[in-house]
Amino acid sequence: MSTNVIGLSSPIITPIHNARRATHLVDKTTDRKFTVFIVDDDLGVLRALARLVRVAGYAARTFSSAIEYLEKQEADIPGCLVLDFLMPDLDGRQLQAALFRENASRPIIFMSGTNDVPTAVATKKAGAIDFLIKPITHEVLLRAITAAVEQEAKSCQQRINWTASPLLPTQSGSKIALAMLRERK
């Protein structure tokens, strides 16, 4: 069995044989497919990663900078963020902190060409799913995305459980949201 590698110098990915399809990963409350948001300043890596996640059955959206991601993100789409750690202007850790401050965080998988252990530990303590060192194998990345899918599903279920709680405030907006969720069940 050959191991395909994604790295700084491998913009082309060969299709994965026996890739597990993720087309069933749809948020039942919004009918939106789980999306892998990829942020990297290397266009070859962006294309390669997007192709990989699409072959695996996920939707993919690419951004060439953290600032572009912040400007165009859609927080209501279920998904995870595959994020290059070192980028010009705003790096991955700064983006992670900004998303946390805005309460717009989603599962994050960091990628880096360096193996700085304290940095990897710090990003995971701040909530990252994983910190992958380039070059990254297909299997390792897809395993991390699967972990992100599981975390997002748990978070979604917790939001639904919280929304269905009888202890909710009695504001009209909350009542409307609760009624909509109950109709979908």
What would your notes on this structure say?
- With 185 residues, this protein is an alpha/beta fold.
- It has a single domain, classed as 3-Layer(aba) Sandwich (Rossmann fold).
- The protein has 6 helices and 9 strands.
- The strands form 3 sheets. Strands 5-4-6-7-8 form a 5-stranded parallel β-sheet, sandwiched between helices. A two-stranded antiparallel sheet has the order 1-9.
- Helix 3 links the parallel strand 6 and strand 7.
- The longest helix is centred in the C-terminal third of the chain and has 26 residues.
- It is globular and about 45 Å long.
- The relative contact order is 0.15.
Output the CATH homologous superfamily: Response regulator
Cα distance spanning the termini: 44 Å
CATH class: Alpha Beta
Number of helices: 6
What proportion of the residues form beta strands (DSSP E)? 15-25%
Any guess at the CATH architecture?
A: 3-Layer(aba) Sandwich
Structural class: alpha/beta
